[in-house]
Design brief:
Rossmann fold; 2 domains; 9 helices; elongated; UspA; Universal_stress_UspA; Rossmann-like_a/b/a_fold; Universal stress protein UspA
Length: 272
């Protein structure tokens, strides 16, 4: 990896993302770019041009001061870190900035839902708009990654995301476990049917899988992914995503948001 981008609001959760980035950057000698989005209120935008300029300068300088304190961490010593301040009103700037990045890392507020990570936006919005993989962390975790569970329905549209996940994680010495969750009733597939689906999928992947493909039976895909990941003591869960409508649809509904919300493990999304 060459560059990691971290959107921050200077909160504890942002610091979790910063710490996670430092662990990955140490392994790969990666540049870290820390981005803070300023939200200019409608009241400010309706003021005169001179008032707008004065208040914008004030908030910029306040953010610069916060950056000085936020980045004063022992674990960041020796890293190449670039602080960046942008106006939230031009949200597309984040996607533009990330065009040459390998990963976006964000902190989230726990299992009750994907919370806002900076004023006016949230994790889901970044996941939906980003062509770059997005890693969501909820606690201060040491990303000494050994095993990653990549969960998908083995459809051809997921192959590029799976290849990208393998390339990224193999580069840091981690192995990727491909997972298919078998559901009851109308979605149930026999072992033979799953084997056929698996063979077609693997025939088009870039390399041999790190492990034999895992098949796990459960009542929902979310439960299957979380339970299997816990069973094998995985370090990260990876999910393919559709940028247009949010997380990828497994079978007859979008469950990616639930996995990102409820998983205690870090979750990384790869856009299809």
């Amino acid at each position: 990896m060459n560059k990691i981008i971290i959107p921050v609001d200077f909160s504890e959760h942002s610091e979790h993302a910063l710490f996670a980035a430092s662990v990955l950057a140490k392994k790969t000698n990666t540049e870290i770019e820390v981005v803070h989005m300023l939200e200019l209120s409608e009241a400010l935008l309706n003021k005169s041009e001179s008032q707008q300029q004065m208040e914008a300068i004030y908030y910029m300088r306040l953010a610069e001061k916060k950056f000085d304190e936020f980045l004063d961490k022992d674990y960041l010593k020796g890293f190449k870190i670039t602080p960046v301040i942008k106006h939230f009103k031009v949200f597309s700037e984040l996607a533009e900035m990330a065009s040459d990045a390998d990963l976006i890392i964000m902190g989230s507020h726990g299992t009750s839902g994907v919370e806002e990570f900076f004023m006016g936006s949230n994790t889901e919005k970044v996941v939906r708009t980003s062509d770059v993989p997005v890693l969501v962390v909820k606690d201060r975790v040491n990303l000494d990654i050994e095993t990653v569970v990549f969960a998908c329905d083995l459809k051809e549209e997921n192959i590029a995301a799976y290849n990208k996940a393998q390339k990224m994680f193999n580069a840091i010495g981690a192995k990727v476990q491909l997972l298919y969750v078998n559901l009851p009733n109308d979605y149930f597939l026999s072992t033979h049917e799953i084997k056929e689906l698996t063979d077609k999928f693997l025939a088009k992947t870039a390399k041999e899988p790190d492990f034999p493909v895992a098949y796990y039976s459960d009542y929902t895909v979310e439960d299957g992914v979380l339970n299997f990941s816990n069973t094998i003591s995985a370090d990260v869960i990876a999910i393919p995503t559709h940028g247009r409508t949010g997380m990828a649809h497994f079978f007859n509904g979008s469950i990616g948001e639930d996995i990102a919300n409820h998983a205690l493990l870090p979750v990384v999304t790869f856009k299809i």
